[in-house]
TrEMBL record, chain A:
Annotated transmembrane regions: 16-34, 204-226, 258-282, 326-348
Keywords per UniProt: Membrane, Transmembrane, Transmembrane helix
UniProt-recorded name of the protein: ABC transporter permease
Organism encoding this protein: Sporosarcina highlanderae
Automatic annotation (TrEMBL), chain B:
GO MF terms held by the record: ATP binding
Tagged with keyword Ion transport: no
PANTHER family: ABC TRANSPORTER, ATP-BINDING PROTEIN
Gene3D superfamilies registered for this protein in UniProt: P-loop containing nucleotide triphosphate hydrolases
Keywords tagged on the record: ATP-binding, Nucleotide-binding, Transport
SUPFAM superfamilies noted in UniProt: P-loop containing nucleoside triphosphate hydrolases
Similarity field: Belongs to the ABC transporter superfamily.
InterPro entries, per database record: AAA+_ATPase, ABC_transporter-like_ATP-bd, P-loop_NTPase
Protein name: ABC transporter ATP-binding protein
Length: 352, 293
């Protein structure tokens, strides 16, 4: 244990290690604040849209009502019908936008999510009854799996009543899934509309984890903490020779160095992942660990006793776990990945 | 039990035979100096003896145990060059760690730092140490476990005269207390002051020389009449030469008194006497003639 503590002390006293840690912390904090600023921009655009529509729509409605009166006086029944339909649509849209505006201002996210759930669920039910996906973007339909999963997600978000991810498309905020199969311009629109931004600390982590950010942080950890043997066996620095003339078994030395590097890498990775959480305390808070996370269950078992590997958007199943459960699994897998990557790096560094 | 026993030790490094079948036994305390020009393999020899570098063939026993057994370093210490120090740690950190490994009480840190005179900068990081300060720390690290066999690689490197005197004093004191010391050095005059037992390393071979056999003592007399003195001493069979108005004569330990009497008997006034002991340097030149040092 004393040897292990000595190796830890050495790491803590190295300036280069502190520089690497500080740079990593700054990089992660900048990443978080940049993402936060984009999310804020998306949110403000949405709020601006809601605000202006409450000025523009009543004006438009007033004009249309005057035109309707004139059309009625003129006896133009076709125009009357057209204007009446338009006024009805605008009134409904205004009502929805007022509903969103008021609830966002009040922080009543449950009501907004409930409304979004109703919309998505309507798509799901209607599609099922017609046996055809009803929602499409430029003739490319949104997969039924995505519609079903998105609806269920909104229902769960409404239940917990937390602020959801910021998303460009707030009318039908789809959860992108592996079942989406868009191309061309639609793919661009789909990606833009379904791109999610986590303002809260936990949501930001959930957003960046699929982008392989954790292996990248582990790799930095390996570079910083995995050279404690090779850096002491150079021509200019031969610290290993000091150990060689002490009553110390080489195995003891190796393991004290290996485990100190490993422990520091684990702490480093966890700490860097905590940076967005700490940063979020100055912005939107850490978020809720109850937020639903989609888990693919794949195809249901066929009557013939084997499972099909072909994706079926109508029947394939899914379920949701909480963000807390998701992070527990991620943390466990991260530790396993650190042990694996660090060990490989450490062994390679002994020979190269 | 031999303190140091080297048997048929060879080391080949990149097809170059650095050590060639060396055998050496030291079985009584004392100071031995390992001498040779740069690149001859002095550090390699010490590294192989301490198993920092593996030997190509042969074996080494330290204090009766194989050098491959790390427990030998409970009784053996090796002062290496300062590249083994960690710049970002303090001198205290180094010494405390050795105490932990050697399982000796921490109070020994204060004792040894006081002994080598580094109390003033013990808590400073080694990166801020001068060459001499680093050498003091290395010495403290080597002495902290009170070794019975002490190996030192160029211990006088970077030391100012005061420190060199201190180092010499420490080595002589340790040897007196029964520590066996093997040191490598270029500083022949310092070696002459601490030991007469020299190990010359040349072409991978070790030659052990007792300098007592090769030591010559010369006296240089400044006299009122050099010519007369030269004649008188020559008649008595002394080997005399005159150089720079001084009479130079090689004498044994008990001959000085007689020579002074002879000079006085010739009514010659003695103005000054200087003693010069030569040995290692002369022998070094003979052994390594043609080798740059």
């Amino acid at each position: 244990m004393k040897y292990f503590l000595f190796e830890c002390k050495k790491m803590l006293k190295k300036k280069s290690i502190w520089v690497a840690i500080i740079l990593s912390v700054v990089a992660m904090a900048v990443f978080y604040f940049f993402n936060y600023s984009v999310a804020e921009r998306v949110h403000k655009t949405r709020m601006l849209d809601l605000e202006t529509s409450q000025i523009d729509f009543p004006e438009k409605l007033a004009k249309d009502r005057i035109a309707l009166e004139e059309a009625k006086k003129a006896g133009d029944s076709a125009k009357v019908l057209d204007l009446e339909r338009g006024i009805s649509i605008y009134e409904k849209m205004l009502e929805e936008k007022k509903f969103q505006w008021n609830n966002i201002i009040d922080g009543n996210w449950a009501a907004i999510s409930e409304k979004q759930y109703e919309q998505l669920n309507y798509f799901a039910v209607t599609s099922k009854s017609q046996n055809f996906p009803v929602h499409s973007i430029m003739d490319q339909h949104v997969s039924m799996f995505t519609v079903r999963a998105s609806a269920e997600e909104r229902r769960l978000v409404a239940e917990i009543g937390v602020e959801p991810f910021v998303q460009w498309d707030y009318y039908a905020p789809y959860h992108p899934t592996a079942y989406d199969n868009h191309d061309g311009k639609v793919l661009e629109m789909w990606e833009l509309g379904t791109k999610r931004y986590g303002k809260q600390g936990f949501y930001f982590l959930y957003q960046i984890i699929p982008a392989f950010i954790i292996p990248f942080i582990i790799l930095i950890g390996c570079f910083v903490f995995g050279n404690n043997v090779s850096s002491e066996a150079t021509k200019k620095k031969r610290g290993l020779n000091l150990y060689a003339v002490l009553p110390l078994k080489r195995g003891q030395l190796f393991f004290s160095k290996y485990f100190s590097g490993l422990v520091f890498t684990v702490v480093f990775v966890v700490f860097i992942l905590c940076v967005p959480l700490i940063s979020s305390l100055f912005t939107s808070g850490v978020g809720s660990l109850q937020y639903p996370v989609l888990v693919y269950d794949g195809p249901i078992e066929s009557p013939f006793g084997f499972e099909s590997t072909i994706l079926n958007e109508w029947t394939d199943e899914f379920h949701f776990i909480t963000l807390g459960e998701y992070f527990s699994t991620v943390l466990l897998l991260t530790v396993v990945l650190i042990v694996f990557m660090f060990s490989i790096y450490y062994l390679l560094s002994l020979f190269f | 039990m031999a303190i140091l026993a080297v048997h048929d030790l060879s080391k080949v490094y990149k097809s170059h035979q650095v050590l060639d079948n060396i055998s050496l036994t030291i079985d009584a305390p004392g100071i031995w100096a390992l001498v040779g020009p740069n690149g001859v393999g002095k550090t390699t020899f010490l590294n192989v003896v301490t198993n920092i570098l593996p030997a190509t063939s042969g074996s080494v026993d330290l204090m009766g145990k194989s050098n491959k057994d790390p427990s030998v370093f409970k009784e053996v210490a090796f002062l290496q060059d300062n590249t083994v120090l960690f710049d970002y740690l303090t001198g205290y950190d180094h010494l405390k760690y050795i105490c932990d490994v050697q399982k000796i009480p921490k109070k020994r840190v204060n004792e040894v730092t006081e002994y080598v005179g580094m109390e003033g900068y013990l808590k400073k990081t080694v990166g801020n140490y001068s060459l001499g300060m680093k050498q003091h720390l290395l010495l403290a690290m080597a002495l902290i476990n009170e070794p019975k066999l002490l190996l030192l690689d160029e211990p006088l490197n970077g030391l100012d005269p005061t420190s060199a005197i201190l180092m010499r004093g420490i080595l002589l004191e340790l040897a007196e207390k029964g520590t066996t010391i093997l040191l490598s050095s270029h500083n022949l005059s310092e070696i002459d002051r601490v030991t007469k037992q020299i190990l010359f390393l040349k072409d991978g071979k070790l030659t052990e020389v007792d300098m007592n056999k090769f030591e010559n003592t010369y006296y240089e007399f400044a006299l009122s009449n050099n010519e007369l003195a030269h004649r008188i001493l020559k008649e008595r069979g002394y080997d005399v030469e005159i150089a720079s108005d001084k009479t130079r004569i090689q004498l044994g330990n008990d001959q000085l008194d007689k020579v002074i009497d002879l000079i006085k008997g010739g009514e010659i006034q003695i103005l000054d006497i200087q003693k010069e002991i030569t040995g290692s340097e002369k022998l070094y030149k003979e052994i390594f003639s043609g080798v740059s040092s």
